[in-house]
Each structure stands twice: as C-alpha cells, then as structure tokens.
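Hi! If you just cloned this repository, the fastest way to understand the data is to look at a raw example. We've pasted two of them here, unedited. The first protein comes first, obviously.
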Amino acid sequence: MLSAFKNRRAKQNANKMKKLVDVEVDPVTIPELFRCPISLELMKDPVILSTGVTYDRESVEKWIFEDGKHTCPVTGVALTSLDPVPNHTIRRMIQEWCVENKAYGFDRIPTPRAPTGSSQVSEILLKIVSMRGKGNTEGVRELVGKIKDMAKESERDKKYIVLNGSARVLSETFQAFSCIDSQENTGVLEEILSGLTLILPFDQETKSGLGSNQSLCTIVKILKVGSLSGRRNAVLVLKELLSSDQTKLQEFAEIEGSIEVLTKLIKEPIDPTTTNASLLAIYHLVTPSTSFNQKETLIARFLAMGLTEKLIEMLVDCTRGVCEKALGVLEGLCSIDEGLEKAYANALTVPVLVKKLLRVSDISTEFSVSILWKLSKYEKSIGDEEGLAMEALQVGAFQKLVLLLQVGSSLHTKEKAGDLLKGWNLLRGRVECIESMDFKNLKRSF
C-alpha cells in the first residue's frame, strides 16, 4: 500500500514538472528608453549631454575623452559642455523596472557615486591658490592629497583634473614654496611632486614653473635628502623637463651636486621606475644639442663618478627597458676619448655588447654596434690592432653582424657593422667561437 502511494506521488510530481516545462515564458525586452544609444545596453549611470540626449556615462565619456569627439553621437551637434549631467529621472525608472523584472534576472542597479566634475576640481584648485598665498603648507598638502585621490579614482576623474589646469597650479605652488628655504616645506614639496607625476605629460606653463632655477634647485635638494618616494617622484618630474626642454639641460647641470645625485640613483637604485627615469635624464644630459665642450664637461663628470663601470655591470642582467637606456647612456659616454678608455679597459664590455646584439631590441642592437664601432676606432688610435677584434670574434660577434646585415637595420648601423666586418674578416681563421643560443629565437629564413 505504501509502495502504491509512493508511485502515485511520483507520477503527480512528474506531471507538474512537465506542465512547468511546457509553459512558454515571454522574453522580457529592455525598453528603448533605457538603452544607451552607443552601447545599446541597459544604462547603469544615465547622463544627459548638452544636446538633451541621454547616454550611459561610461560609453559617452569614452566617446568624449578617449576618442576625442566633441559632438553628440546621435545628433552630430557640437557639444557646448563636455560635462555630462546625471539623469536622475531615467535612473530611477530603470531601477524600478529592474525590481519589477527581478524574476527574469535583472538586478536593481545601484545608485552611482557622484563623479568628479570640473566645478569640484576648480574649487579645490582655488583653495590651493588661497592656501599658498597664506603660506599654509599643511592646508596645501591636504588639498593636493585630494587631487591625488581623484586622479587615482578613474581615468575620467583624471581627465577633469588635467583639463582644469591642475598641473599649472601645482607647478606654480611648487615654485612658490621653493622660494622659502624651510625644512617645513619639504613635506608639501614632495607631495606636490607626487601629484604632478599622476598627470604627465606637462604643458608649457607647467614646465615653465618647474623649470625655474629655484624649482630645479629644490628638485636637486629632494634628490639628495628627500624620502625614497620623494626622490622617485623628483626624478620622474626631472626626466619630463629635460626630455622636452633642451634649454634646461645646462641650467640643471650647473646646480651643485646635480650630476652626483643622478649617478647615485643608478649606483644605489630605488626601484625599476626610478632607474629608468634616471637613465633617461642622464641620456639627455650626455647627448644634448649643445656645444661639444659643454657635453664633454658633463660626460667627464659622470665618468669621474664611475658611471661607466656601473652601466656595464647593470647590462649583464637587466630588463629590456633598462638595457636600452643603459646602452644609450654608455654610447653617449663613449663620445669622448676618456669614456672610450674606461669602456675599453673593462673586461666585460665586449662580451656584454656582443651578447645584446639581436637579443633585446632593434635600438639596443644599434647602440651596441655603435659602441663596438667606436671602440674599434679607438683601439686603432692607440696602436692596438687586434685586442678587441680577437675578443669579439671569440664570443661570436662576426656571425651576429653578418646576420644583422640580412635581417635589417638602419643604414648607419649597417654601415658600422660592415666596417667592423671588414676589419675583423682577416682574423677569423685564427680564433672563432659561435654561441648558437643567440640564434635560436630568430624566426627569419635565409
């Protein structure tokens, strides 16, 4: 009897399940009013443009700020304002619709956080100017911290910060506090540099403020005695100034201790970012478009600090970015005889340079060939015809240079490579060693 009851109950349940399966559920269609005209998806943060058309914030801000289009996507009309205004009415309607259709998998869209706007950024910048005028370092430091938090929040917020001239205000503030020689200013000055690194690259007005003699002296001071993060941010800002303004190279070089602090950042590295920025700053100093006498003096100062030996040591094992910049600086140092002498005397120079050929990048290969070519010329000038050549042949330089001519490179590099091959060809029979591992990753057919 119990068995019959169980069978009857199972049959009833099966019929219920069958009915449920047979019921057709009408699909839910998202109303057109709730769809973004750009993505055609349900809007999560509807905003209105100056043309009156509503879009999802993420899509329209990508259109405006990332794609650089200042027209309405639907109407094509030029926008009178780039600040989208939240459409609270549509947002509430979307939220209510999601609640009503929860059974179909639509979760209620949360109310978005109010984004940073031009007015909010402008208000903070005005307060910074006011605090600066009063000499209130702590107040400025706190406000710069808010700017930093906004810049880190999202690319959208960062765009508003840049568009409202934050870099110019921060650079002027840095310059103003640099004129006051006080230990109390160190904290706010480091905080300003930290904020500036978040809104690179700089416009001309920003560079003008940071490039003043007083500002450059303060940057050097922070590089000398600042905190680790302060020194890191200082060299990032310095790299930006020197790479885009050749007139600042000589001014910076004339500041007492400037060359020494940059060299120290290479010899006592903080992190890869700082090392890369320091190498770039030095590269612009040793390869400037200034007179040869000025360049020779700068190079001599770097050589006296032992930079050549440190660069060669770094090249033994380093990342691609560091390798390219270190080779660029080394090539600049080899522009004078004293630099060539130091590189020529180092036992690691030739093996390291040959090792980098065709292994790192095209620019690393070009720098390596250029340095080898300069060393070869220097060797002949001091009366040694075979030392460098024999060493280079032993580590497989000849085969790499031949391969370089076939895989392609700049005309100047090919000319230097061909010149080296001519000089080394007669010595090939005396000593030769091929490092086959250098060729395993090449995917060229010959």
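Ok, and the second one:
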Amino acid sequence: MRALLGVLACSLTVLSAYGLYTSSDDVVELNPSNFNREVIQSDSLWLVEFYAPWCGHCKSLAPEWKKAATALKGIVKVGAVDADQHNSLGGQYGVRGFPTIKIFGGNKHKPEDYQGGRTNQAIVDAALNALRSLVKDRLGGKTGGSDYSRQSGGGAGNKKDVVELTDDNFDRTVLESDDVWLVEFFAPWCGHCKNLEPEWTAAATEVKEQTKGKVRLAAEDATVHQGLASRFGIRGFPTIKVFRKGEEPEDYQGGRTRSDIVARALELYSDNIPAPELQEVLNEGILKKTCEDYQLCIIAVLPHILDTGASGRNSYLEVMKTMAEKHKKKMWGWLWTEAGAQMELEASLGIGGFGYPAMAAINSRKMKFALLKGSFSETGIHEFLRELSVGRGSTATVGGGALPKINTVQAWDGKDGELPMEDDIDLSDVDLDDLEKDEL
C-alpha cells in the first residue's frame, strides 16, 4: 500500500530531508542549477530518474539504479532528480508519478520515456539499445548531442528573444502583462554587463521555449532610459529584477550563467501557473480526460442543491478552489458532482451512504482510490492529501477495476434548487360521502 501511494500523489510537504543517492554513488545528482549544463548541453546519452525520497517504489529501485550506473560508467551517464524537492524540473518534463525514468538521447529537449523493467540488467540493456540507436543516427547524418547549440547558434541564443525595453513601452510590455518578466538594467560600458550578455541571450531563447512565452527576459539600457532606472532604484550594473503583475518587483538573487538564469525562470513559471479548473462531471469525457491526463484526480460529491441551496454549494466549491490553488504545482485534476447525479461513480468509490459532502482521490493508472474521512474543510482536505502523500492513508480498488459509466447531465446553473411541480389531482369524480363511510 505504501508503494502504491507513492505513485498516487506528489508530496505536499517534503517530510523526508534525505535523498536516495550520495556522492559516493555513480549516480549523478541533478537539480535546476546543473541540469542544463550536465544533461541538455551534453553530447552523452543520459538516463535520468525523477524520484521522491518517501516513494516506496523509488527506494526499491535505488540499489538497482546504482548498480546500473556503475556498470554504465564511462559509457552512458546515469542521473537522478529529487523531483519532490525540485518540482520545477519534474513539471518541465511532465513527471506525474514516481519513479519516472527518461532517456535523453539525440534530441535532449524531447526525452523518451523508459518503459522497461526495474532491474539493473533491464536498465543496462535499455541504455545500450538507446546508445546503439544514437550511434546509428549519427552514422546516418543526424548530429545528435546537444541540439540546443544547433538551435541557438552554439549557445548564443537568439537576440530577438531578449525584449528591448524603453521608458515608453515598459509599463505596457511588462507591468500590464500577465507573464513573468526578468529585466536586466545595463550600461553599455559595463564589463559585467558585457559578460552577462551572451548568457542572458541564450537563457532568453531557452526560457521562451520551455515556458511557452509565459516567462520572458528583457533588457533596458539604463544610461539612456534614466527615468526607469530612477523609478526602480537602479544603482549598479547589471541589476536584474523580477516583475510579476500586481506585485512589487523583487531583486534577482541567482547566478549569472545561462543554467542559473533558466533554473530561476522555471521556478517562477512553476509559481505562476494557473490553478487547475474545477469542473463539474457533466459527461464521461470530462471524467476520463481529467483522471487520465493528471497524476491524481480529486472528486467531490456534494449534497443535492435542495439540501444546501446555492450559498451552501458555493461554500463547498470555494474550499475546493482554494485547495486546488494551494496545490496547483502537483498536477492534480479537480472535479465535483451532485449527490445522486452519478450513482455508478458513487458506487464504484463506496460513497453511497458515506454521507455528503464526500471526496475521493483516484489514481486512474492503478485504479485505486482513497476516501476523505475527515471534515470537508481546508484543514480536513489538506490532512487527507498529506496522509496520502506519505503512505498513511488506506486505499481500495475502484469498483469494477475501471472508471464507471457516467451520465450526461446539465451543468448547474448557479441557482437555488426548486422542488419538482406535482400534477394537480382531479377529485371531481370522487364521492366524498363514500370516503367518509370507510372504516379507518
């Protein structure tokens, strides 16, 4: 059960401070600061495990992973990312469960999922097969290696990806934008600025690609546009500030290499992602897509609208929205339905008769679920999800071993419920005198 729950959910709180690998192992510990340098810019083939220290499957894999790393030393690079601690890296590569293994071959920006066994022999065999494919591609004319250098001119990046700011366009471009901005204030004569320029340019290209333009890098000549420099208290060059809509700018505290800048940008991207949408289960497609696309789907069965009214239902939905926002980095889907609307779903989760509101967390890959036993509140739901994350909850198999049939229903209109209208009873042909004579 503990191993299953390690796959069920990411950790809400890092409860184990210790990784699974040490410097004495042949496994390279990777993090946002060194990942681009070690993996993306490397010509080597890499096998990378994304793990969580509390994950039972990860603990079982660790000795096999170490043996494979030793066997492949000097041939194939073997690394590991504590994705519970460095969730920006896990999110970047779509990690939805632990352990996840990816093979970074010829195109480092499109790694392949490892689907083999979890023994050291299976891992080594897969690595050697991937290596043969890489060599074959190179013989066929595909360059392989670090495709970043090909995309951005040997690591120079595209200067067009660094947005040029002026006094005239700053507010419109940066302050009014929903995106996150890293802005460098520079002086053309500044030696440190000249050293930063190629790193800033290369990082701008990579960040734009990795965040789909949601985090952007810009530069502003503070000797020309002195109004901006004065406005933001620029006293030395280069100065880098982070701008997020509606917030005061903050000083950038990271390193000045491309990998450092990219790592910080990805953290900002992870912080700025919107909360997942809270959806009503209106048809089979909504349930299937949410539970299959996300690592975990959280489903609430709320009381009938006649029992709570609109205000009562909205209070429950607000609790769910708050929790979805709080745990938005965890890649979970959030759903709700009304009691009685999806009876087969309730039956498959053992909710019927458990009381409303009720909540279940489903791992559709394992077809396992766990039920909220505490209060339907921020505190109760947080504790429920935390218990799951550390393997202390109890789970059961989804009834029938598959997602149940879902009825197609109308979306809630946001209003109070109305009692169904009853047909008037016509008593014109009833002899009331005869009724009075009936014995009781």
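That's it. A detail worth noticing about the second one: Residues 278-401 form a domain with the Glutaredoxin fold (CATH 3.40.30.10).
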